Amino acid sequence: MTDEMMNLRTLIEKSPDADLLREMIGFAAHRLMELEVEGVTGASYGEKNPERVAQRNGYRDRNWETRAGTVELRNPKLRKGSYFPGFLEPRRMAEKALTAVVQEAYVHGVSTRSVDDLVQAMGMSGISKSQVSRLCAEIDEKVKAFLSRPIEGDWPYLWIDATYLKVRQNGRIVSVAVIVAVGVNSDGRREVLGMDIGPSEAETFWTAFLRKLARRGLRSVKLVVSDAHEGIKGAVSKVLNATWQRCRVHFMRNALAHAGKSGRRVVSAFIGTAFAQDDAEAARLQWRRVADQLRPKLPKLAVFLDEAEIDVLAYMSFPVAHRAKLHSTNPIERLNGEIKRRTEVVGIFPNEDAIVRLVGAILLEQNDEWAVQRARYMSLETIAPLSDDPAVSLPAIAS
Hints:
By secondary structure, the protein is α/β, with parallel strands linked by helices. The chain is built from 16 helices and eight strands. A hairpin with a 2-residue loop joins strand 3 and strand 4.
């Protein structure tokens, strides 16, 4: 029996069940690296071979994130040349984009202390503009193709939201709005549909963004979910023949501001009874009862409820199975949170192209992760009836 088989048997006998898969992945990865290095050097470890073309030079420790957990690897190093395991991706797209943005900031002398620290940690001192340009061009091409791809099929649900990032413009540091759209199609799959950058969330900006999505093929939108920004509401009414859903979470924050500290829990429970109803008509009736009960003591809150009723309860007219994902912008808020986390290291972007590069790469990665998930975001059976395509929306004929 070979030494490798002996080691594998020992590994299986000694490892706890929870760690067994991770240890086996590490064992297989180590053997694969050794085989690859033998091919690169022309000789196995410790072998004296006149055909050897390179000498080994120890190992470099590296953590490999897998679905089974973190696997600790020891990557072989060479005295001349370099070796990188073929089964490892050198950098994920967003990491490449972050590197490109940091490099560009560093080359142009606009980096902050945190960026300088990151540059040194990456070993990127003495970067040339040509190196930056090559890396940026590689990423920009992929991001541009992703953000301008045709949008095919029906998209019953659309979430849109904005986050703000800082960028240098004409020698000043300004905040710009980065808007993102996420949709669910008639197959129940979720995708990032687009992003754009503008000086603010003005209605003209949102209108132009939605029209751009429509030109790329966005159609059959039944419900748009967002916060209560007037610019979004006006743009949706102009461009999309769709119902607008006001984010319930944002609404509750605004409503409780009218209740005072002592009454917030009671008011929250009152309003929550409307959300607990089984259908749209029952929810509207309960909403009016709550508003009338609050009117004598909290007239401003009652008026606020009257004005918000249609928009906050819009999601109740859609399938019960979808309502938990339709009543708020939480699905896209999580994505914006990831954007904020990944862009904090940059702090101030050197230009808007750098924002598109990094944020676009993050969105591309997220979209790829959604694409490979086995489970649909919404089941095919519950979402198919919403499609405008007769071949999709009609129920199957019983045999």
